[in-house]
UniProtKB/TrEMBL annotation:
<dbReference type="GO" id="GO:0042171">
    <property type="term" value="F:lysophosphatidic acid acyltransferase activity"/>
</dbReference>
<dbReference type="GO" id="GO:0047184">
    <property type="term" value="F:1-acylglycerophosphocholine O-acyltransferase activity"/>
</dbReference>
<dbReference type="GO" id="GO:0005783">
    <property type="term" value="C:endoplasmic reticulum"/>
</dbReference>
<keyword id="KW-0472">Membrane</keyword>
<keyword id="KW-0812">Transmembrane</keyword>
<keyword id="KW-0808">Transferase</keyword>
<dbReference type="GO" id="GO:0006629">
    <property type="term" value="P:lipid metabolic process"/>
</dbReference>
<dbReference type="Pfam" id="PF01553">
    <property type="entry name" value="Acyltransferase"/>
</dbReference>
<protein>
    <submittedName>
        <fullName>PCAT2 acyltransferase</fullName>
    </submittedName>
</protein>
<feature type="domain" description="Phospholipid/glycerol acyltransferase">
    <location>
        <begin position="69"/>
        <end position="156"/>
    </location>
</feature>
<keyword id="KW-0443">Lipid metabolism</keyword>
<keyword id="KW-1133">Transmembrane helix</keyword>
<dbReference type="GO" id="GO:0016020">
    <property type="term" value="C:membrane"/>
</dbReference>
<keyword id="KW-0012">Acyltransferase</keyword>
<feature type="transmembrane region" description="Helical">
    <location>
        <begin position="12"/>
        <end position="34"/>
    </location>
</feature>
<dbReference type="InterPro" id="IPR002123">
    <property type="entry name" value="Plipid/glycerol_acylTrfase"/>
</dbReference>
<comment type="similarity">
    <text>Belongs to the 1-acyl-sn-glycerol-3-phosphate acyltransferase family.</text>
</comment>
Length: 160
């Protein structure tokens, strides 16, 4: 019986996840369409709210479809309380759960990830701090960008 359930559930889950991924891509594309600044200026208004609410909700639904049920104990720190927060050890796709539960903050990511089809558009909508592995001054630039965002008094989303 469990093999029969797997034969039915696995394709159904894959179809649902593909649909959610395409929907997230479309919403990220809409939010960043005609965006002035291309990541140098924080998203504002409906664009920022759309990313925070819809992408967070879609990510939660995706993990539920995969069989994850996450319970948060305590209160998530607000942007004013913690402009920067650390998720450790970050080494897997479980980091996405943290992002979804905290309202899709900005992340620190390799610059190469921004050019990935579909995922690059979604990642770009989160306004990541892009780290270039080819640039020898990348660490200094990354620290400076994180500091600038942390001191922006809420203009930028939290940085994870």
């Amino acid at each position: 019986q469990s093999v029969l359930q797997g034969i039915i559930l696995v394709p159904l889950r894959v179809i649902c996840l593909a649909f959610l991924l395409l929907l997230a891509w479309l919403l990220a594309l809409i939010a960043t369409l005609c965006e002035s600044g291309r990541g140098c200026v924080p998203l504002k208004g409906w664009r920022r709210r759309m990313i925070q609410t819809t992408l967070s909700g879609l990510t939660r639904v995706a993990f539920f479809i995969l069989g994850f049920k996450v319970k948060v104990t305590g209160k998530v720190a607000s942007l004013q309380e913690a402009p920067i927060f650390v998720a450790a050890p970050h080494s897997s796709f479980f980091d996405v759960i943290i992002c979804a539960l905290t309202g899709m903050p900005s992340i620190v990511s390799r610059a190469e990830n921004l050019s990935t089809p579909v995922f690059g558009t979604i990642l770009r909508s989160l306004q990541p701090v892009a780290v270039s592995r080819q640039d020898p001054d990348s660490r200094k630039k990354t620290v400076a960008e994180i500091t600038k965002r942390a001191l922006s008094r809420g203009q930028w989303p939290q940085v994870i």
